[in-house]
Design a protein that fits this description.
Length: 386
């Protein structure tokens, strides 16, 4: 699935990450999940090779690239059956926000560890009563002398148990208007008043989901990331990479499922010819491949715009890429399972679990309906209903 739109360096990166992914594969990740562990070996090796921090500044130990390069890493690991979900959160969201808006001390403290994989950071935005409406976020930050006090709840936060800290989205009062505005805070894992509870999920993943409680969590002034008056800009600087990386995650998963189905369709013979010779089997797989390729094109466009500093253009493209990739992934997984028939539901082939996993991309980090709202209002100029 190489493309002329990529540089030779990008193609080399793809090939190298693909080789790493194949050495681990789906069996490795399935074993890790079954044992309740984390993919530490793969994470460490990917970090040592410079893949996890490829988007972070060179002066802090990163690769000096962008989201274009990081999305290649995640897509290829996914295509090999062993994606690393924390890549979406730690280097892509948190690393990007700190690199762009963090203080010199925050950069020195966090970026080298995020770049070499020795430290990870989770991201806390979703709340029980806010859903997709970030204006209803109720986690509030108030000043207490030079400190901040943070109070609120978050849900569906990935990997908090293994993350050294969580980048929490709260709201603070604007001294000029009295209105609440978004602010970002770094909250170390063992901070007093910062509690977590595992959410029981039907989705089986190495990364657990958590509900967080923040009960008057006291933070020093330096826990605030960037300018407290630029919170919205800083927030979206993290959300666009999140959407691009979610697209990469979904495309990789779709490619893995499709490659499994294609190999099966070439070999499985029920009558005289392999089942892949029959158009009823071949055409849906071809269509799934086309849809994944189209989604990747939009993902590449979004990454290109984001890395070029066009936040507005990247916002539109990143939402479209995430939408297209999620739809393509769900269809590819469904068709792949169907191609294998009963075998598609067995543990031997490892596709059935992807039915649930692929569905996540339609919901998180933002639902497809909210993306359609975004395009309706921002791109088409249609009025809002809310």
């Amino acid at each position: 699935m190489s493309t002329v739109l990529e540089t030779d360096e990008h193609k080399d990166l793809r090939a190298a990450v693909s080789a790493l992914g194949r050495r681990y594969g789906r069996a490795y990740l399935a074993k890790v999940v079954a044992e309740g562990g984390h993919p530490d070996e793969l994470w460490s090796e990917a970090a040592k090779l410079g893949y996890l921090g490829v988007n972070l500044p060179e002066e802090y130990g990163g690769g000096g690239g962008g989201i274009a390069e990081l999305s290649i890493v995640l897509e290829e690991l996914g295509a090999a059956g062993c994606p690393l979900l924390m890549m979406v959160v730690s280097p892509a969201i948190c690393g990007t926000v700190i690199a762009r808006f963090g203080t010199p001390e925050q950069k020195r403290t966090w970026l080298p560890g995020l770049a070499d994989g020795s430290r990870t950071m989770a991201f806390g935005i979703t709340e029980p009563d806010a859903g997709s409406n970030s204006h209803r976020i109720t986690t509030t930050a108030r000043r207490d002398g030079s400190d901040w006090l943070l109070t609120g709840r978050k849900v569906f936060i990935s990997g908090v148990d293994i993350a050294d800290a969580t980048l929490i989205v709260g709201r603070a009062e604007d001294a000029r208007t009295g209105r609440l505005k978004p602010c970002l805070f770094i909250v170390p894992r063992d901070t007093e008043g910062f509690g977590r509870r595992v959410i029981d999920m039907e989705l089986h993943s190495a990364e657990k989901q958590f509900e967080l409680t923040l009960d008057d969590v006291r933070l020093p002034a330096e826990a605030l990331v960037g300018d407290e008056d630029a919170g919205l800009l800083q927030l979206f600087a993290g959300l666009n990479p999140e959407r691009i990386m979610t697209a990469a995650f979904a495309i990789g998963m779709g490619r893995y499922a499709l490659s499994t189905a294609i190999a099966y369709a070439r070999e499985r013979t029920v009558w005289k010819e392999p089942i892949g010779a029959h158009q009823a089997v071949a055409h849906p797989l071809a269509q799934a491949h086309i849809d994944l390729e189209l989604a990747r094109l939009m993902m590449q466009k979004a990454a290109l715009l984001y890395d070029a500093g066009d936040d507005v253009g990247a916002g539109e493209a990143a939402n479209m890429a995430k939408y297209a990739a999620a739809e393509a992934c769900v269809k590819a997984v469904d068709q792949s399972v169907h191609t294998l028939g009963g075998n598609g539901l067995t543990g031997e082939f490892g596709l059935a679990s992807l039915i649930t996993a692929s569905r996540v991309a339609r919901i998180a980090p933002v639902s497809r309906e909210m993306i359609l709202n975004y395009v309706s209002h921002q791109t088409l100029g249609l009025p809002k209903s809310y």
